[in-house]
Each structure stands twice: as C-alpha cells, then as structure tokens.
Q: What sequence folds into this?
C-alpha cells in the first residue's frame, strides 16, 4: 500500500508486507546467486572482473587506473570541498567522535595468588568499509564507518564506494575520508567491492574485516565471504517503522516516512497507529508524493503497535507523539530507536552522534549498531603461578571425564 491509499491495513499485514519488501530477509536467493557469481569472477580475475562490473553498472569508460586512489589523491580532491560543507562535516565528525570515544575498549582481568588472567583489546590491522552511493556520494557513511575505526586504532582503512557515471570524485566524500584517515579509496561497490576487499586483487590487499551498509547484493556477498573475512552485520536496504499516537503531527511524521522511502530500492517505510484521524492526516500529507512507497497500519491500541514494531526488529523505530514515546521501554529489538516528535530519524543519519550503520532484515534481534568494538579483536592472556595443586586436580578430573589424558597429564605436570 502506498501513500495514495485511503485506508490503513490491519496490523496483521505488517509482517507479510515487511517480508515482501525485504524479499524474505536481508537478501533473497536471487541476490545470493548473483553475488556468488560475482565473487567467483573477482576471485578468478581480480581487478579485471571488478572493472567489467564497474563498466556495466557505474561508468562505461572506467579505466584500470581509475579504480584506486591513495591518501595523497584523497587529500587533493578534498581541497575542492566547499567551506559550508566542510563545516557541516566537521560538526558531524565531532559529534560522532564524541559519542564513539566513550566506547573505547579497555583491558579487563582478574589477578590472585595463582593466576593473572586478562582480556586484552588490539585494533585490527586492515579494515574495508563500504560507502554506498545513491544519486550522490554519502560522506556521512564515510564518517560513520571511519570514526570508530579511527578511535580503535586500525592501521589501514580501505573505503569502497561506487564510481559515478562521470568518473568524478566527490570532494565532500574525499574530505570525509581525510577526516577519518582513510588510506585508500577503491572505486567500486556492491558484491564486486566486497569480493575485492575479502580476497584482494593486484591493486588492493585483502582486509581483515568488512563493515558498513550496502544494497541486497553487497549484503549477500558479505554473508557469503564471512567464512574468510570478518563482517560486522547484515546491513541491507533501509527500514523504518514509525509508531504514532494521536497527538503526533501528521505532516511531520509523513516527512519521516518520505525520508525513509528516499533511500530507494528495497527501502521499507511504515506507520502504525491506533488513531484513525492521524492515519488519515498522514495519507493526506503523502498524497502529492505518489511515487513514495509507504505502508500504513491500524492497531487496536498503542501497546499492540509498539509490540509489532519490536517483533519486526527493524533498522529504525520512531515513536512519535507523547503516547508512543511513553512506551519506548517496550522496544528492545531495533537497530536504533528515536523517541519523541523532535527526534527525526534523519538526525541519526547525520549529526546525532550515534552510528547509522545498523542491522536490517530482522537481524536486529541479535545484531547491533556499528561501534568501536567492531574494529577490535580480543586476546586472552594467561599467566599461572604459585601453588597449582588444587587447580590441577580439578582440571585433571574434568579432563579425565572427557577422555583427554594428555590434557590431564599436562596440568598435573605443573603441580
């Protein structure tokens, strides 16, 4: 049901409509099959395969030398970024950094007379970040993926972003990459970029982990390569479920829904409310935007609306109006929750400070927003000392039960 509809669907349709918009999840068999073929081609032919895909979908005249920009070239393009855009990106960078600084990993441990055991964080050596492209580049996503990498201390950040049709480099994207100390810009997107990052090419070394959002093909590719390289979460087409109570401003809620639909193919935007007048007001506000694909649902009460949103586990939940905002504690399964009429979801995309790289396709049931910990690996360090006889006896008893005689013997030898 689009914005032209004059009547909201029953809430029971919500799950079916989300499943249809998601094609059954973060990606469907069709995207998985296509991504697998692209991965095989890139593993076989490297940059040549990537270039074929770039020429097909992005820039027909792309040349091999167009694929990679180093940090010096990034700085050169960044100099053309307009001053007002620089200032806006500086503000966003500062707020994102201040929020993520509080996530800085810290060593933990326990020490007693017989042991010193610790869990020690260390930054990943090399990370690949996906920065998708719509009608323009997304410097905001470069900040969202780059800032936590920077705070974690990642040594090399490789950003993959599709090449535009005219072959240009967006100065705002270059400026954002400079802010986060990106070392390389690989000018490809989707499954081809994921494969190049995961397995390397002649011009690009393989990375330890791939983070960031993408289309359904990129998301399927991340899943497919996850046995060979780390991934953060499945971050496919964007989603919003807005729950609005009667006192919400229908015209403003409509703007949030339209902003979500603006993400393009596969985006899912829905409003759930128990108030018929509010739903009619939103339909009226959407009437002029006939191309917008927005779903409307009628709930028996606000609690049922909020519970339905929580069960769907979408990327974004907006609680608009005092009644809806009062039920925020009932939303546990969402990538991000925006509470109250003033909390536009778009603030989270740019300047709130939280990360906009979020789990989609219902994966918010177990997955989380991109954070500093995604750029860190943890090592246990164990140092035993003192009288170990009782620990050796206990360990040997367990090992003996499990039939591990050399485990048993190795501990007894220390006692």
A:
């Amino acid at each position: 049901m689009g914005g032209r509809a004059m009547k909201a669907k029953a809430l029971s349709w919500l799950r079916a409509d989300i499943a249809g918009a998601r094609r059954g999840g973060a990606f469907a068999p069709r995207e998985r099959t296509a991504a697998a073929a692209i991965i095989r081609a890139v593993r076989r032919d490297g940059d040549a395969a990537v270039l074929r895909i770039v020429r097909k979908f992005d820039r027909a005249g792309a040349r091999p030398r167009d694929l990679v920009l180093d940090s010096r070239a990034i700085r050169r393009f960044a100099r053309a970024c307009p001053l007002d855009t620089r200032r806006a990106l500086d503000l966003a960078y500062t707020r994102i950094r201040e929020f993520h600084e509080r996530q800085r990993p810290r060593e933990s441990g326990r020490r007693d007379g017989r042991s010193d055991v610790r869990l020690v964080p260390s930054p990943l050596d090399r990370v690949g970040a996906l920065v998708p492209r719509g009608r323009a580049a997304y410097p905001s996503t470069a900040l969202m993926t780059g800032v936590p990498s920077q705070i974690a201390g990642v040594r090399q950040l490789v950003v993959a972003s599709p090449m535009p049709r005219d072959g240009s480099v967006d100065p705002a994207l270059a400026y954002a990459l400079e802010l986060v100390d990106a070392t390389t810009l690989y000018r490809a997107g989707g499954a081809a970029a994921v494969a190049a990052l995961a397995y390397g090419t002649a011009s690009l070394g393989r990375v330890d982990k791939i983070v960031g959002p993408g289309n359904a093909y990129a998301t399927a590719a991340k899943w497919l390569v996850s046995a060979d390289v780390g991934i953060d979460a499945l971050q496919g087409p964007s989603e919003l479920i807005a729950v609005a109570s009667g006192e919400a401003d229908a015209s403003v809620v409509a703007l949030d829904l339209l902003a979500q639909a603006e993400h393009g193919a596969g985006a899912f935007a829905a409003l759930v409310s128990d108030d018929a007048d509010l739903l009619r007001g939103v339909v009226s506000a959407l009437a002029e935007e006939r191309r917008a694909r927005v779903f409307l649902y009628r709930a028996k009460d606000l609690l049922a609306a909020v519970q339905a949103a929580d069960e769907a586990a979408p990327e974004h939940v907006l609680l608009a109006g005092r009644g809806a905002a009062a039920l925020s504690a009932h939303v546990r399964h969402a990538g991000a929750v925006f509470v109250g009429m003033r909390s536009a979801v778009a603030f989270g995309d740019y300047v709130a400070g939280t990360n906009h790289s979020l789990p989609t396709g219902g994966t918010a049931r177990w997955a989380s927003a991109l954070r500093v910990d995604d750029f860190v690996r943890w090592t246990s360090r164990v140092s035993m000392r003192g009288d170990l006889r009782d620990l050796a006896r206990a360990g040997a008893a367990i090992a003996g039960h499990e039939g591990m005689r050399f485990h048993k013997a190795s501990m007894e030898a220390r006692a």
Observations:
- The domain at 9-26+237-353 is CATH 3.40.50.1980 (Rossmann fold).
